[in-house]
Amino acid sequence: AIRMTQSPSSFSASTGDRVTITCRASQGISSYLAWYQQKPGKAPKLLIYAASTLQSGVPSRFSGSGSGTDFTLTISCLQSEDFATYYCQQYYSYPLTFGGGTKVEVK
Amino acid sequence: EVQLVESGGDLVQPGGSLRLSCAASGFTFSTYSMNWVRQAPGKGLEWVSYISSSSSTIYYADSVEGRFIISRDNAENSLFLQMSSLRAEDTAVYYCARGGTTVTTPSRQDVWGKGTTVTVSS
């Protein structure tokens, strides 16, 4: 199975900050990478797929980049509603696998 | 409105069985692959199983292979997960999630239900 490693696992930030989360795959996955946001007690929400394509309805402050094994999720100007846990997922091959998650907390 | 609604979660004893259901609405269910994804308390997301639109292709995570069976009824717009030989480590919120419309390649999950809780304990 392809292992997905996210970093950091958590960090504190302030509203207005530029935030970057990284995700590394244990083998090349081309651009078959998705990012999800999850808030406590809620289902995950798809933010980005194909590494850099913004899902419909997702604010443009979210962006994704990368291909192969190294990927990033960037939030250009953190808003209060963005404090959440973020997961990357590879959908290059089965079993689908998720990163361990990155929790963005209020500083 | 595109919607997925899970049901069937319950408290069950180790070794027991349970059947989860997911009712789909607002889209042409028969053209989409579907997935089950679970999340143990305080833990991350774990993909569990995949079924193609026609049920011709099915995959399972190693952790559930041989114990869980995924199925669907396109006439009823429903997805199922039959769970047997349940273990404490199967305790989780189980989400159904929509996949893509192609059979040949995996897809991101763009629509998720709110989840149903399975607790395995004596």
Largest sheet of chain B: 7 strands, mixed
Low-confidence stretches of chain A: none
Question: In percent, how much strand structure appears in the residues of chain A?
Answer: over 45%
Percent of residues in helices of chain B comes to under 10%
Structural class of chain A: mainly beta
What number is the mean pLDDT of chain B? 97
- Beta-strand percentage of chain B? over 45%
Counting DSSP E segments of at least 2 residues, the number of strands of chain B comes to 11
The average pLDDT of chain A is: 97
Protein architecture, described:
The complex is a heterodimer of chains A (107) and B (122). Chain A is mainly β. Chain A is 0% helix and 50% strand. Chain A has no helices and eleven strands. In chain A, a hairpin with a 6-residue loop joins strand 4 and strand 5. With 122 residues, chain B is mainly β. In chain B, the strands form two sheets. In chain B, strands 2, 4, 5, 6, 9, 10 and 11 form a seven-stranded mixed sheet that branches. In chain B, strands 1-3-8-7 form a four-stranded antiparallel sheet, with no helix packed on it. Chain B is built from no helices and eleven strands. In chain B, strand 4 and strand 5 form a beta hairpin. Helix content of chain B is 0%, strand content 47%. At the A-B interface, strand 4, strand 5 and strand 10 of A face strand 5 of B.
Short account of what is shown:
The complex is a heterodimer of chains A (107) and B (122). Chain A is 0% helix and 50% strand.
